[in-house]
């Protein structure tokens, strides 16, 4: 399990979602959902819109009831415990701050709702604002703050009540790219320092890769793969995960021959060898991460017609003309490549062991 600086997550299950199902108006959006998070772990639910990640988050929070299954938190069943008694805090996409209150009053709201003694509120608010570097803004109205400052206030408001679990629903989506990346680093560090367990909902793969110990990639109400960012990227278990996490060259093909544990696969771009032993005639999807492809010959080599050469800072991305509608031919080479013209032939080469193969969906 990955971990940044700070306390290593406890490997034992802290949050346990067992066999959870949910339907809306007769349409099943989730069934037999099993999902486990360790104490102190930062986990992301990653997937396209409508895949069920926000529904799962709301069921954990108690804001939506499950039709089936159980939820345990630190060994205690909370399936039928109302949301306000779970001590689970949620940071919503809209932040849900009170515009007529000051920063300090917003942060203090949860403490007052819990009937914390008046004399204890100010020190707790001060500590929470200090954690998010907003102490100098305590008396300002929320409406006068920038998006990043409002996000910090929303985080302070949930931390001040010492939740047993923190849930974040697309918390950075309203921020510009640079600020979003800064807030991701700051929040991850803050949660690490406090050894908090947190679940992020996002459709942004870079955000999930940056903040998470593990990522649950969701599709159509189920988890396709639940693993560390490095495992997801290097060894995706399905073509969907391969496509959703990172870029890849992608080709359709058919197994023509199998020799030991290596297959010969016929594609529109030529013959490709790959690890595995699927049956001859099996339709497959082939994937190769673009940084593992070199310009020139390799154990596998295809010749493509260059469609574009995009300079992306320290690397250049080469796009080949697809020989089949569903294929995507992509290579990343280090440095700035010049003198490459659209329409010229380019060789893409890579090793057999770096070739990913999945049975094609029909």
Automatic annotation (TrEMBL):
Keywords: ATP-binding, Nucleotide-binding, Transport. Residues 15-245 form the ABC transporter domain. InterPro entries: AAA+_ATPase, ABC_SmlMolc_Importer, ABC_transporter-like_ATP-bd, ABC_transporter-like_CS, Mo/tungstate-bd_C_term_dom, NA-bd_OB-fold, P-loop_NTPase, Transp-assoc_OB_typ2. It comes from the Bacteria. The keyword ATP-binding applies. Signal peptide: none annotated. The keyword Cell membrane does not apply. It holds the Pfam family TOBE_2. Gene3D superfamilies: 2.40.50.100, Nucleic acid-binding proteins, P-loop containing nucleotide triphosphate hydrolases. PANTHER family: SPERMIDINE/PUTRESCINE IMPORT ATP-BINDING PROTEIN POTA, SPERMIDINE_PUTRESCINE IMPORT ATP-BINDING PROTEIN POTA. This is Polyamine-transporting ATPase. It comes from Marivita lacus.
């Amino acid at each position: 399990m990955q971990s940044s600086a700070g306390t290593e997550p406890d490997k034992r299950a802290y949050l346990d979602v067992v066999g959870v199902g949910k339907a809306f108006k007769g349409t099943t959006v989730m069934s037999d959902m099993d999902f486990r998070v360790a104490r102190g772990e930062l986990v992301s639910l990653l997937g396209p819109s409508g895949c069920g990640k926000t529904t799962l988050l709301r069921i954990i929070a108690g804001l939506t009831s499950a039709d089936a299954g159980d939820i345990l938190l630190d060994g205690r069943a909370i399936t039928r415990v109302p949301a306000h008694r779970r001590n689970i805090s949620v940071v919503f996409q809209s932040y849900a701050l009170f515009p007529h209150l000051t920063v300090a009053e917003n942060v203090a709201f949860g403490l007052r709702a819990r009937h914390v003694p008046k004399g204890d509120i100010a020190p707790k608010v001060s500590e929470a604002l200090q954690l998010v570097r907003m102490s100098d803004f305590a008396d300002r109205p929320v409406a006068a703050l920038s998006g990043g400052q409002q996000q910090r206030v929303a985080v302070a408001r949930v931390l001040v009540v010492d939740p047993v679990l923190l849930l974040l629903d697309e918390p950075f989506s309203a921020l510009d790219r640079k600020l979003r990346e800064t807030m991701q680093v700051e929040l991850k560090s803050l949660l690490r320092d406090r050894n908090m367990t947190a679940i992020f909902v996002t459709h942004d793969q870079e955000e999930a890769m940056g903040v998470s110990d593990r990522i649950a990639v969701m599709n159509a109400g189920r988890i396709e793969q639940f693993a560390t960012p490095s495992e997801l990227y290097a060894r995706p278990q399905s073509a969907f995960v391969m496509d959703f996490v990172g870029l890849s060259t992608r080709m359709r093909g058919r197994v023509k021959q199998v020799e030991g544990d290596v297959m010969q696969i016929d594609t529109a771009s030529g013959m490709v060898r790959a690890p595995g032993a699927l049956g001859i005639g099996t339709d497959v999807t082939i994937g190769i991460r673009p940084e593992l492809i070199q310009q020139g010959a390799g154990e596998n080599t295809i010749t493509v017609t260059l469609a574009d050469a995009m300079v992306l800072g320290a690397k250049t991305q080469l796009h080949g003309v697809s020989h089949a509608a569903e294929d995507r031919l992509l290579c990343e080479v280090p440095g700035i490549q010049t003198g490459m013209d659209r329409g010229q032939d380019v060789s893409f080469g890579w090793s057999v062991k770096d070739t990913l193969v999945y049975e094609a969906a029909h």
